[in-house]
């Protein structure tokens, strides 16, 4: 029976230990709520328990055995029942009550709200007045109640919302950074792709240039072979001359000995003594080689006397007005830019370097790197005359104002004048140290100017056949030269990125034009002479006011180099031959640029017909193309 009375006490003890006498559960709840950021104030009554009043009960052993000698049936049944009862109590699972969330009291809610909002002064005032009322007993905590759960949930949701907003902002920043990295990567990809394409284009261009150079150097082999043959021939002639000289020296020694014996009085009988003039005697003693050298020497002396007697030409002072001044007013029809490929003339085996139109007739002259210049009839393109005499590639050519003579410049450092009626070379100017790039006639026809790779330009007198003046000033190759129409003014374009205006009478540089960032390949005047057009190695075209010597406009059609520029007869359309094979046409009135696609390789030269109906261009494939 004592066990039965202690059973409720034991169960209560176990429950109190699980619940922690009610105080532990309340403390855990408070700590859990405090961890979430809220503070609660709860009234708890603690009762003191006396250890003397507590009755301890001894728990029976599971391995219970009935001692021998006390085998009483009734007592044994009672002990079995007590053991079964204790087993049932131990087997029962103690169900602990779940911890209910303790609601937040109103004063804690207000304090937390003020702390959260940063209202510290208001918080201090509230706490001082609140606790003052509590001490005075004017306010009862039990009557105030608790804050509803909805407010606590709203605060928790608000905190969660703020955290989500922070995460969203962080993700947006990460997305923006990823977008910037993507754009940067795309730009780098596009840059490397364009760089790769440019490298491929440059590689193809270098391959084509290498092929052209191979063909160019292959053309040197026949010349080298001819020079070797001439060298062997000259060695043979030198040997024969040495033998003739020794024989002549022996004859002279014998004659001197004979004369000496005659003077000493010795009798000397000769089979025949004949007195001959001195000139005939020398002719009898000299051999054929010496005779040829003597004749050549006498011919050179006579030519020198003729040159010495020839006076230098005078630069004209009263120049005739430019006939192209009124051409613009007469030609009021719209400028033609819609050219289409009409015909292809294959004239040279190597690249075409220059094309010019005859000043009066419908014929053109083409010069090539195969050392030949050809007169071509239009519109069929039949070759009327072929000129050869240069020992290296031709770079430029120019007609005499009358149209009956031609001047050509070449990589062999010479300038040659040709008679077109016979096709013969009538004069050769030598004086440049390197290849000659360009040449031009003066409008009076008595002077020819040339520009060279040796950084100089020269003015040659056709009548006295000598160099009248050398123009110094450029620091790099002088690529183009041209006389201003009807004057003594020269225009040069150089690889030092400048244009220069010269006075041909004094050889002084009057003005230099700066603006190009790369080598100037060509420069020319408009037919009226009021404007200059120039192009450089990066495809930039510049127009200059010749009266003010100031730039007007700059047009970039690169990056392929511009090889040559030319105006039509009206001066309203400018054509440029580009390194990528495109012919660019610039309408000066509207500013529009038109492209003519037809060359399979680099375009070197371009020129208009006199009426502007046709356009002719020459390329590195040795062809001349007709556009109409």
From TrEMBL:
Signal peptide: none annotated. InterPro entries: WD-F-box_domain-protein, WD40/YVTN_repeat-like_dom_sf, WD40_PAC1, WD40_repeat_CS, WD40_repeat_dom_sf, WD40_rpt. Gene3D superfamilies: YVTN repeat-like/Quinoprotein amine dehydrogenase. Residues 154-188 form a coiled coil. Pfam families: WD40. The keyword Repeat applies. CDD domains: WD40. Residues 272-284, 292-314 have a biased composition (Basic and acidic residues). Keywords: Coiled coil, Repeat, WD repeat. Residues 272-318 are annotated as: Disordered. WD repeats lie at residues 387-428, 429-470, 471-512, 513-547, 596-628. This is Sperm associated antigen 16. The gene is SPAG16.
